[in-house]
Fold this protein.
Amino acid sequence: MELSGKSIIVTGASSGIGAAAALLFAAEGADLVLGARRSAELETVTERVRRGGGRAVFLAGDVRDEAYAGALVELALRSFGRLDGAFNNAGIVGRMAPAAEMDPAAWTDVISTNLTGAFLAARAQIPVMARQRQGSIVFTSSFVGHSNGGLPGMGAYAASKAGLNGLVQSLASDHAAEGVRVNALLPGGTITPAGGEGDPSTLAFVAGLHPVKRMAEPGEIAQAALFLLSDRSAFMTGSPMIVDGGMSVRLL
Ligand code: NAP
């Protein structure tokens, strides 16, 4: 068991990559605090964890809310007595449009969820981990903003994820000496609601962008998050870990 006895927060746990990660982490022995806005979906994932013999609690809320970031940490401490890891995975693609034509409110929506939400999570989680002198934080970034080759209509999303990669480097360097590791996970196209699940033409287009000519299953991305949260990656911090079916090295 890779995460035995570790208390871990997973955000974006109501669907897609986060839900797959919750089930995988629980199977690997983690005690989980699950977060997202949709309560019913969180309850379903929590029940699946418990039916599998795992321990999980959930709290619905919005990652843009500073109080919610703190409440997830408090819940981990109250339920499990410590906080060893966080998979800060909640994110949105938002409304797609060329950045120059984008409504500023739509821009703010994406930046505040994907980037400010990450900052608020780190701000709540790192002091607890620093006191413990131990912790691992993983943020879900994206191939977009790193190696997307300028996918059309994704300016806000690309800016938010590129900004997140920069934030991860800074956090890693600021807190390495306190025993807190911080890494980014950069998935390629993944079959989830945000990844176009249910829309065959989008899925075929995105699959075709990848040298492996397919998209990832959420569980494949969760495996990389598991590695970054486990002690197997003890010497990794500040890393943008690319799990993208070869997207970043494609020629055409
Ligand atoms: P998803 O199934 O739509 O999951 C997104 C999750 O984020 C949901 O659980 C959603 O829950 C949560 N969320 C969104 N806004 C939130 C908010 N304001 N407060 C709290 N929770 C919020 O899509 P996914 O693909 O698994 O996305 C997970 C992460 O992977 C995202 O950061 C995404 O940018 C990244 N990613 C996805 C792909 C892809 O192709 N799918 C590729 C690269 C990176 P609620 O709606 O219940 O709040």
About this structure: Residues 7-244 form a domain with the Rossmann fold fold (CATH 3.40.50.720). The chain is about 45% helix and 15% strand. The two ends are 40 Å apart (CA to CA). The first strand starts at residue 7 and ends at 11.
